[in-house]
Amino acid sequence: MDYKEYWPPKEISHLVECFWTNTLHPDDFQQEYDFIIPDGGADAIFMLNGHYLREDEENSTKYLVDQCSFVTPFQRAVKVYQEPYTTCLAVRFRPEAIQALTGVTLGELDRPAYPLYEIMPELADLVMSQISKKSSEAEIIRRLTGWLSQKQIEPSANAIVTRFIDQTIQSKGKVGIKNFCGELQVHKSTLEKNFKHYTGYTPKEYSKVIRFNFLLNRILFSPMNLTEITYEMGFFDQSHMIRDFRKITGMNPTDFIEKKFTVPKLAAMAISNKRLYL
Questions:
Q1: Buried b vs exposed e over 143-154: b needs ≥16 C-beta within 10 Å?
Q2: CA 79, 124, 93, 277: dihedral to nearest 10 degrees?
Q3: pTM attached to this predicted model
Q4: pLDDT tens sequence across 234-259
Q5: Per-domain boundaries in the chain
Q6: Beta carbons of 25 and 263 less than 8 angstroms apart
Q7: 16 contacts 90 by C-beta, under 8 angstroms
């Protein structure tokens, strides 16, 4: 698996967290399917070659992604079926950027994914044109940057939402909502309303997703055993950790590790960089 992240230039850093690319190789496929892990973000994803079949068991839907799509925030892992050498390029947007670019908030988008032309038709046309010309990844990112720069949009960031996102990532998902509201002297319902509007998550849902990503990072890349990871991540006990892990993936950590999934490593690697984007 070749996964790379690219920092956006300063002029669009208020809109884009990062660009990322990924190519899967034959030895990445240990099972007939893989998982996409929720990471708290919203991405425009472009298939540079090939396609994949995405299966959302929670909503009993299955659909083919063969061009470009907009993936909204979601809470449970979804199965994907891909071919070797499938390459994709994506833009990971900041939450407040979506409303500024589209006039629609993440809280209003109730499907796990949309064809990109329904959300950002100009962006879909731009990138698909470059893909048809077989432009390089670097050239497509350059074109994306130019398109976003020309928009000259300044999103109206919500200070409460931004601060909660920052504290959640800094604390690896262990932020206390009650304490947070007390520090800022805001009512819990105010936080929840604003957070859902901008991110598509409730604060509790977002905290669980971020915590899971840090947990997955430790499980996949740390030499620590599950007991050590459990307490480092602030779980009451190992059964609590396993229960939360199963809610997102549908299996326990040991089975997950044994199956040697590849795509979840993207989320596990990306979460370690999130604090750098703040």
A1: bbbeebeeeeee
A2: 100
A3: 0.91
A4: 998 999 999 999 999 999 999 999 99
A5: 2-151, 159-277
A6: no
A7: no
Distance CA 203, CA 224 (A): 29
87 vs 92: CA distance, rounded Å: 16
Decide if 2-151 and 159-277 have a common fold.
Answer: no
Q: 70 pairs with which residues across the strands?
A: 44, 114
To the question of domain 2-151 being in CATH 2.60.120.10, the answer is yes
Distance CA 192, CA 214 (A): 23
Output the six-digit token pair for 39. Answer: 């990471």
According to the CATH classification, is domain 159-277 in 1.10.10.60?
yes
Tens digit of each residue's pLDDT (9 = 90 or more) over 63-110: 677 789 999 999 999 888 888 888 999 999 998 899 999 999 999 998
pLDDT tens by residue, 160-190: 999 999 999 999 999 999 999 999 999 999 9
Angle between helices 203-221 and 264-277 in degrees, nearest 10: 110
